[in-house]
Write a structure and sequence with these properties.
alpha/beta, Rossmann fold, Hypothetical Protein, Haloacid Dehalogenase-like Hydrolase, Chain: A, domain 2, eight-stranded mixed β-sheet, 8 helices, about 25% strand, globular
Length: about 260
């Protein structure tokens, strides 16, 4: 049986857009054995650098809201205009900086300029485009209905509790750590993205494998046939996974693919 492997990005496949050589080579070797590889990330497509050099088979973006397999879109589930506006209003009320994420374009709203400048500095010199997006002032009205998710990146634990209480029905706010959280439509998750791909491929013929490191990976780690938490992952991810590998930069994905027989 072949395996469809779903890879979180930040902390799993890369750090700030840089993929370890061992992971790239392991993916290539496993694909030669007939296995398929897809991202499964909270990031929207517009906030991911070009990954074509990896030769992946597909992409799950925006925590399951957009799924592309073999060049064909098989899931496209915006959060909805009313929900998007309600989430933005909640983040504004707390003075948070946040991105409004669409497939083709994202926009940023800056309420805290000091935190914004710190984020720009942290991303400087990396392939990561997450802070280099146009501002909300440039966002056309029609884009509100095409957003896949909203993501704040300047919060605290208290902000998360307050923001979660303000989410409209049908929207889930997931804490990501480091002062980040993402608001997504409750009907889509990384697990629903994974199942959509397996159904498309032929469920009886494919095993699923999920690799992640944090709380926004929990749905896919729990739903996959086998799952891997990175050694640098948090305790929740490790508890949810079938197996814990080494750190991202200590050949973590290579060891995982070897352990589960993909190579």
């Amino acid at each position: 049986m072949h395996t469809a492997v779903f890879l979180d990005l930040d902390g799993t496949l890369w750090e700030r857009g840089v993929v370890p050589d061992s992971a790239r080579e392991a993916i290539r070797r496993a694909q030669a054995n007939g296995h398929k590889f897809l991202t499964n990330t909270g990031r929207a497509r517009s906030e991911v650098p070009d990954l074509s050099y990896l030769g992946l088979d597909g992409y799950c973006f925006a925590a399951g809201a957009e799924v592309i397999l073999d060049g064909q879109t098989i899931v496209d589930a915006p959060i909805g205009e009313d929900n998007a506006r309600a989430v933005a209003a909640a983040f504004d009320s707390l003075g948070l900086n946040y991105n409004l994420e669409g497939g083709d374009t994202s926009w940023i709203c800056v309420n805290n300029h000091a935190a914004y400048q710190a984020g720009i500095a942290a991303a400087s010199g990396t392939p990561d485009p997450i802070m280099s997006v146009p501002t909300i002032q440039d966002m056309p009205e029609e884009a509100w209905g095409r957003l896949h998710k909203l993501f704040y990146h300047s919060g605290s634990a208290e902000d998360y509790e307050r923001a979660a209480a303000l989410m409209p029905e049908g929207v889930t706010l997931t804490v990501l750590g480091f002062g980040f959280a993402e608001a997504t439509a409750s009907r889509v998750t990384k697990a629903t993205a994974m199942e959509a791909v397996r159904t498309w491929l032929g469920a009886s013929e494919w095993r699923t494998m999920a690799c992640g490191d944090s709380d926004n990976d929990l749905t896919m780690l729990r739903a996959a046939d086998v799952s891997v938490a990175m050694g640098n992952g948090n305790d929740n991810a490790k508890a949810a996974a079938t197996w814990v590998t080494t750190d991202l930069h200590d050949d973590g994905l290579l060891h995982a693919f070897e352990h589960f027989g993909l190579l």
